[in-house]
Amino acid sequence: MDLNNSSWTRTDRGPVLCFGSSNNSCERFIYPSEIQILLYLFFSAIALTTVCGNLLVIIAIIHFKQLHTPTNYLILSLAVADLLIGGFVMPPSMLRSVETCWYLGDMFCKIHSSVDIMLCITSLLHISFISIDRYYAVCHPLQYQNKITPPISLIMISLSWGLAAFVGFSMVFLQLNILGGEEFYFDNVACKGACIIFQTAAASTISSFLAFGLPTIIAVSIYLKILLVARRQSKSIQHSAHLGKKNCVSINKTEGKATKTLAIIMGVFIVSVSPFFFCNLVDPFVEYTIPPTIFDVFLWIGYLNSLCNPFVYAFFYRWFRKALRIILLAKIFQVNSSQTNLMERRD
User: Fold this and answer.
1) Domain-located, residue 6
2) How far, in Å, are 51, 65, 320, 334, 337 from residue 331 at the CA level?
3) 49-86: pLDDT as tens digits
4) CA–CA separation, 307 vs 48, rounded Å?
5) SUPFAM superfamilies given for it (predicted)?
6) Model pTM?
7) In angstroms, rounded to a whole number, what is the distance separating the alpha carbons of residues 299 and 220?
8) How much is the average pLDDT of 173-182?
9) Whole-angstrom distance, CA of residue 236 vs CA of residue 232
10) pLDDT at residue 33 in the model
């Protein structure tokens, strides 16, 4: 994700430039100093909370042996992506949003934009693979342990990162996003002090579908299938009081709770990033008239998803709340703390 229009401004003395000595400088909007301070504090709080929250998720899953499951490996990798958004993507984006200019150099702009795109796609692919994990856990529980193994989770994680890195870096460094529109871009959009991802209509349509539309359709379709199967299972279980099936009820409730939590995470992600993707898709077809402020607001709404995930875990997962207490009280340094039973009571 990235801002899709150059910075703008106007003062009583005429436009202010990002680089006054450059003939090709972007215009700059200067916020009042009080607003700048508030924005820096607000964005810094978002970034710091995102890093700390996802770091706790990572520590919990790595440290506690009981959490070493295929599903949690995917959650761990997703938390790494969210942590990188908070630690690497948000700070430069904060500087750009508040100063309305990019002062960190062209090469770092390309790296930052590539990583931003990569992490967004990585998160979507993780959510798609998590939906597959949940499908087997709920719909085919007897096959789950054979189908979804730690090596399979590793393959899913590798595909998520590998494909996302290829798309993110190739789009930016090979300039696939301006293919066919180079003349318009360099004559009307490109200026010194901007760090944007300009896309032609074709590039915007293809990238939006492949990076957002297709993974979203896959994940939503799988969760709808899970919902239908879960309802059928619930009706079937209600008509039986057999002891063995009572045990199955307990297992299904556990998997159902995990599936519900991960479905909420998927929903939060889609709601968070869809406004940006929608604007990114529509902008080329309305002559790039969507204001930069709109893109910036939707960009940060998308970033907020990375902050939300740890709170979703804390609200729905008892094991995460228990792990969090142990970590914050520094009990993880005690002997055999990694063997702690976090699920004495089932969620």
Assistant:
1) no
2) 21, 15, 15, 5, 7
3) 999 999 999 999 999 999 999 999 999 999 999 999 99
4) 9
5) Family A G protein-coupled receptor-like
6) 0.86
7) 23
8) 89
9) 6
10) 93
339: tokens are 């063997």
CB atoms within 10 A of CB 84: 20
Q: Distance between CA 227 and CA 209 in Å, rounded? A: 25
Q: Is residue 1 a part of any domain in this protein? A: no
CATH number at residue 170: 1.20.1070.10
2 falls within a domain: no
Rounded CA separation 194/188 (Å) = 13
Report yes or no: 280 and 4 within 8 Å, Cβ to Cβ. Answer: yes
Residue whose entry in the numeric block shows the structure tokens 């992506």 = 81
Instruction: Answer yes or no: are the C-beta atoms of 306 and 50 closer than 8 Å.
Output: yes
The angle subtended at Cα 88 by Cα 86 and Cα 92, nearest 5°, is 100
Cα–Cα distance, 2 to 277 (Å, whole number): 10
Instruction: Give the Cα separation of 266 and 218 in Å (integer).
Output: 12
Measured distance CA(216)–CA(278) in Å, rounded: 13
Structure confidence by residue, pLDDT tens digits, 238-277: 555 454 554 444 445 666 667 777 788 888 888 888 999 8
Distance CA 255, CA 267 (A): 18
Taken as a whole, the chain contains a residue count of 347
Count of structural domains, the chain: 1
- Cα separation of 31 and 33, whole Å? 6
Please state whether beta strands 27-28 and 16-17 pair in parallel, antiparallel, or not at all (unpaired): antiparallel
Q: What tokens were used for 112?
A: 């930052």
Tokens coding 238: 């209600």
262 φ/ψ angles, rounded to the nearest 5 degrees:
-70, -30
- Exposed, middle or buried, 19 (CB in 10 Å: 0-12/13-18/19+)? middle
Max distance between CA atoms of the chain, in angstroms, equals 82
- Print the domain residue range for 321: 16-234+242-338
Please name the amino acid found at residue 92. Answer: P
